[in-house]
Amino acid sequence: MEGRFFTSTEAAEITQCSRRQLQYWREQEIVVPTVNTTGKGRNVYYSVTDLLALTLMEYLLSVGLSFEVCQSALNFLRAVDPKLFELPLHGKTEKRFMLWQSAGEETLRCTEFDEQKAITAIQAGRAIVPIQIEALGKRPEKRLQLVSSPS
């Protein structure tokens, strides 16, 4: 899968996002395709790194988070380590993060995983969403195998 590029249709199938979502995220500059970002349709290609960012967005949206929280988490992770979404492809990474709601706050914020903070938040009935980059990296790999295999 590494080194390959994927059309919008393929990226949508692999990440389980709609083509409209991909287009919107491209327009909003959330996940911009790596190749030919000005093209339409088949001229737009996504890299494996792009697929991992799309998978993260899909995962966070699927647990019921707002678009703004998902975008904020993606931006945080990119700022922490710009190559973070490449790590699952280049060996094991034990980097773990979490979205959590601290005392007195209404919104979730992203931080490196802290077991004690997570336990405290859960015990207090506050939200926590784990983010394990390596596990997310396996999702598009499995889906690619399903999409690529003949029926």
Automatic annotation (TrEMBL):
One of its GO terms (molecular function) is DNA binding. This is MerR family transcriptional regulator. It comes from Stenomitos frigidus ULC18. One of its GO terms (biological process) is regulation of DNA-templated transcription. InterPro entries: DNA-bd_dom_put_sf (IPR009061), MerR-type_HTH_dom (IPR000551). Residues 6-75 form the HTH merR-type domain. It comes from the Bacteria.
